C-alpha cells in the first residue's frame, strides 16, 4: 500500500474524528509531503494527554490505515509537559504535525494503526 502524504493523512484523520461526533484540530502544521505526525489525545478521566508518536519500524512493514504506524507513549502529559515535549521535538525537526484530539467516540485503533510494543 502506498503511504499517504502527511497533509492528506492529517486532514482525513481530523475529518473522520469530527464526522464521528468527536473534536480534533490540527495544532501544528508540518511538511505537507513527509512531515512526521504526532497525536495528542486529551483524557478527561485523569485530565492529561496521551501522546502518540510515529513508530520506528524495521523492514517493509506498512500500516493498512494510510501507510503509517503509531506508538502510544506510556507517560501521560499535563498541558505544560506536553508543550515541553513538543518543543523538544521541534528542536530536532521543525517539519512535524500535531493533531490534537479533545474528544473521540471511536477507539484509537480504528483511527490509526498502533504498534504492538507500545
Output the keywords.
3 helices; about 120 residues; alpha/beta; globular
Q: In summary, what is this structure?
A:
This protein is of the alpha/beta class and 118 residues long. The protein has helices at residues 6-19, 79-92, 108-111; strands at residues 23-28, 37-43, 48-54, 69-77, 97-103, 113-114.
Walk me through this protein's architecture.
The protein is α/β, with parallel strands linked by helices and 118 residues long. It contains three helices and six strands, in the order αββββαβαβ. It has helices at residues 6-19, 79-92, 108-111; strands spanning 23-28, 37-43, 48-54, 69-77, 97-103, 113-114. The protein has a six-stranded mixed sheet with strand order 1-5-2-3-4-6. Strand 2 and strand 3 form a beta hairpin. The chain is globular and about 35 Å long. The chain starts with 5 loop residues before the first helix and ends with a strand. The relative contact order is 0.29. The model has no long low-confidence stretch (mean pLDDT 89).
